[in-house]
Amino acid sequence: MKRRDFLKKAGVGAVAASAVFGPVYAQTLPRVRWRMAAGWPRALDVTFGPQSGAQYVARRIGELTEGRFEVSAHPGGELAPTLQVLDVVRAGGVEMGHGWAGWFSGLSPVLSFDSAMPMGLNFRQQNAWMLFGGGLELFRRFYADLNLVNFVAGTLTLQMGGWFRREIRAPEDLRGLRFRTPGVGGMAYSRLGVTVQAIPVGEIFLALERGAIDAAEYVGPHDDERLGLHRAARFYYYPGWQEAGGGVTVWVNLERWRTLPKPYQDAIATACSEANERMVAEYDLKNVAAMERLVRGGTQFRRFPTSVLQAANRVSTELLEELAGRDEAFRTIYTPWRAFKGRSRRWFASNEFAYEDFVRTLRPA
Known about the structure:
Elements lengths: L2 H8 L12 H4 L5 E7 L15 H11 L4 E6 L10 H7 L4 E4 L23 H10 L2 H10 L3 E8 L6 E3 L13 E3 L2 H8 L4 E3 L6 H6 L5 E2 L4 H7 L7 E4 L8 E7 H5 L3 H35 L3 E4 L2 H21 L1 H23 L1 H8 L6
Parallel strand pairs: 1-2, 1-3, 6-7, 6-8, 9-11
Antiparallel strand pairs: 3-10, 4-10, 5-8, 5-9
């Protein structure tokens, strides 16, 4: 049976499912133990943590199946290095993975649609497109060819632009910078004259502190503070145009997925759906407190100059069009994604953005 045919018959296109297990029914199901390789270090208590991250997903699968389907979550480096998580799950060395698809854009730039594109969708638009706008179905077909099944499992929210050792006043100030940033966003930065470096999460601080790089971006105030990036650079720029949506994904090895009873498949889908709802709330709470601490500690929050954002928009548009022109798989997702982005932005601009523009002018309570 072809993988795509299996996906249709198995019903994995469903975004989430209800998993209810009675005591007698549960006894008829086998006991299963799986491992989940996460790409996050243990210190990142949102993406790896018990409230909405990898540990949450693993625990909820067990709870939904009354302990008969056990999943253990392991931080980056324990079962696989961060940048090898996808390959390990594809090969079946580990049954599940939890991470950010843009890390693996070297395999295919298509993967950045599953995480964040430069000048792309914000996290609410990303959720709408993935869950109800056809994005998930497109990715199920793409991932099937990689021997994977994917689930939306969270968001990093709108990210920050990054930590810089010197001020950025114009696009020219970016030229020659050695900058840590992954994915297609990194490809866009390259077109602005930046030397992009893909450095694993756990190595960012030392590279920035020792001057091996001039700037770095990771996620936002809470995670960046936990990584200590504020101790290595003073200027903290926003918005994170290179990675707007920041989707988090759970991957399941397709062959192992086929062995699971339907209730266990439903448990995975439900746990991921819950995590997706919870993660944005956890970040929205913790980023506020972290921002306040960083400001008190001397961090200089700076908005990217309009000229920089305009240049970023120009090179991002050119890059995506070029990738679509030469890569059929990229074009297959880019075309409906671009159409959705245009329609969604018209709605957001008429209401959400207008409200936010006004609220910014008010003095905080």
